[in-house]
Write a structure and sequence with these properties.
With about 525 residues, the protein is an alpha/beta fold. It contains 22 helices and 18 strands. It folds into 3 domains: about 170 residues, Ribosomal Protein S5, domain 2, CATH 3.30.230.10; about 170 residues, Rossmann fold (3-Layer(aba) Sandwich); about 80 residues, Helicase, Ruva Protein, domain 3 (Orthogonal Bundle).
Length: about 525
Amino acid sequence: MFVMTYNPFGYEGIVIRVEADIRRGIPGVDISGLAAGAVREARERVRAAFRNSGFKFPNDRLLINLAPAGVRKDGAALDLAIALAVMTAAGEIPPAFDTMVLGELELSGRVRPVCGTLAAAVAGRDAGIKNFIVPSANAAEAAILGNCAVAGVDTLEDAVNALRHLREHGSLPPAPVTSPKAADTPDADAPVTEVKGQPRYKRALEIAAAGGHNLLVFGPPGSGKTMLARRMPSIMPPLTEEEAITVTRLHSLAGIAVNGLIDKAPFRSPHHSASAEGILGGGRAVRPGEISLAHFGVLFLDEAPEFRMNVLQSLREPLEDKRITISRAECSVRLPADFQLVMAANPCPCGRLGAKTAECGGEYGGKSTAEAGCYCSGDEILRYWRKFGGALLDRMELRVPVGSPSVSDLSGETEKPEFSTALRVRQAVEIQRERFAGTEIRRNSNMGSPDIDKYCKLSGKALGAFTTAVEKLSISGRAYHGILRVARTIADIEGADSISMEHVLEAVLHRRQGDDPYDVFSV
């Protein structure tokens, strides 16, 4: 007799068949199938849960096999399935071959919640399983798919009664499921327009949100770099149903409590002390890292040069491939990582480079270190910026220098735009969804060379401006395509079918880090 369950490993995970066999011999429990420590310890948890729930544990030799046997299993989520497999083998409950069971058992017989419930539901559905018995705390998560029967249980006895009900009535007992709610994001409801000043930065955020482009912003402390970046979720459009299921699944696999469908674009902001494994993912059980938790959303690195250099450089491949491959001795695991990177940095370690005085800031750039009150040596500034590396900076399609806001900016009224930034972004995203329907491309930032040739054609003045910019700036091939992708996004925001010279010049402005895009024409 067997019971189906699930073991999270990477993104897909493994559907496990828990087989139980009772035979004559010295009483004991053997578990085969590459069971890790937490699974082997289930023998004692299950035995105590039987006794404390009023059930009799078989007084014979018991063999439990976890198939497929060649894959390592870990975690306590298999406890409930092992217990029900033993009861099925003992003839106490009817077999349920089309039911998946998840849950960790306490010694009292109560069932504790587990991670990866949505991933288990997706994997079970793909394997033809229609019924799911999960802890009550995970019932809403398992029911997100909507086309399967879910029973939430609090105790081992509840799970036994659910299987008996399934056998007698052909269905699991009905259980109330709370409505899905999205996880709250810090400052997600605070609009960008509440921040005074920094119009160029706000425009760059709008373009980044609309096209999924990477953004680097740098300037003195107190200029609003972090405050504006954290408000980026307020202008990002909601996820589609398919995207929301993927994001929720990744959060569940990472062990983050999920009450329902996450329909907002994720915004992750790890501390600069984070390790490479914490950012990229991994561990003994290979769980998603920050780049996967930011899938279809934003990974924000505040004080980016303070991150370890190996962490920053390890972001280059995922930014290109939109996934991360984690290699282990036994296998390689792929995790999705289609995120946009937003980085904020000071101009130097002390942050005063480019300010008018040592105490207060002015417009960024053009000042000597002595004039600005900067205490950093040239070597210190070089080491500070060298952490980025040219290859990572080349992937930042938008680069925005900001200065400290002026007195007039701070004392002025809050902006009241005639046309909502969030609405413009949403309309631009809808244009892209229609344009790339039926393909794997989500945003303009995902376009490859053939797609750029198809959707970013230039003619007339736009082609002349772009050609002059390329010749003046001596840009790389990646930057060449990056400017065209940004120009396409700007045209989408404006609702234009073709890319004009103004769109190209604005894209060049955000790439150059300067103040005037027209100076590319100067000698």
